[in-house]
Every structure is written in structure tokens, then in C-alpha cells.
């Protein structure tokens, strides 16, 4: 990992970006790094788990086509969450551990442990959706409702912890240049096929003025085009999957 610079030597408070504050978000610590994409992803994670919780409770077990759509949506959600956590575990937390205090390191270890708690919950829910897409099984639906609720509460706690404590560490220890370097080294390239799936998913329900700001980032023009071409199709599938939510 290249040598990091501290935020205090990189920019004054007067030049710090205005941080996003989206529905459900607990905090948005000030600092030199514009965390807009982090908060957009957090919004999508919270949104989906709220919808999944309602859908699992209310979707009739005989609606196998709907359960199949819910299962597909869960796969997209889980893929995005797993990649989000992997970038943090492999790139962000190790960079901070080199610079932080013992208290910072303890917080980062807790972040990684919380990521680990989510993995079995994600797979257990995926198995439940597969079961209900194949069989009308009330017991499977009851078990899935418990698992989705557990995943929702676990992720809510984790995101709140991250937004209040871990992101404050990021803003204190890293510069915007450091952050860009970590993303370049650890975030996989967004190929067209992947962007077509993820862009409308991440953008769904985000206020238009926020999307305009996100799409104004370097490279954001292409994502805007993808969003315009895919948003209506995504909205239709979204409505079918969560029709009982």
C-alpha cells in the first residue's frame, strides 16, 4: 500500500465536500473525501432489506414466479453487498490500520467481524428463496422470514456503526487522493454487463438531485446513460418482485 497522507495536510475544512444524507442514514462525518457513492450503496442495502422483510411476510407461498423474482433480486443484492465488504476488508481497513490508534484498529477489526456475520445469513436467505421458488412451503417461508429479519437487523447495526465510527476514521486519516488510490487498486472494473445490473439497482429511489450529483463524477456520464436506458425495465421487475410488499 502506498504511503498515505493525513487529511489535515491535504485540505482545509473550507474545501471539504458537502456530504450526502439519505433516508435511513445515521451519520455523515465531515472530511476531505466525498463519500456519496458509499452512502448511495448503503441506501440501496437498507431499502432492499426493508422490502425483502415485507415481501417474505406477505407473498403467498403459491406465488412461485414471484418467489423466483425475489430470489433473483436477492442474488443481485448479495453480490453488491459482498463486493462492497470485500473492498473494505482488502483495501480500506488495512490502509487505516497502518495509520490509526489502537482504538481505531479495534473499530476496524469489529467492522471486519461484522462483515463475517453477514455471510452465512446471506446464503441462508438465498437457499430459502430457492426453496420457495420450487415449492409452496409455509415452513420454509417462516424460516426465511426469520433469516431475512436477522440479516436486516445485523446490517442495520453494521451500517450505523460504519457511518458513525469507521467513516469518521476514514475522514480523519485519509486524503481524497488516498481514497481514489484505494478504489483504483481494490475495486473491480465495472464492465458494461455488470453496470446494466447495478446502476439502476443502486439508483432506485434515490432523489434526482442526488443522482445528478453522483453522475457528475468523473466517468459518471456513462452511468447516467445506462440509468436512462435501464431504469424503466428495472422498475417493472422491481414492482413484480415486491408486488406483495
UniProtKB/TrEMBL annotation:
Spell out the InterPro entries in the cross-references: Hemerythrin-like (IPR012312)
Q: Which Pfam families match?
A: Hemerythrin (PF01814)
Gene3D superfamilies in alphabetical order: nmb1532 protein domain like
Location of the region described as Disordered in the Swiss-Prot/TrEMBL record: 1-25
Give the compositionally biased regions (Polar residues).
Answer: 1-12
Can you give the residue ranges of the Hemerythrin-like domain? Answer: 37-165
What is the protein name for this chain? Hemerythrin-like domain-containing protein
Q: Which organism is it from?
A: Nocardioides endophyticus
Tell me the lineage of the source organism: Bacteria, Bacillati, Actinomycetota, Actinomycetes, Propionibacteriales
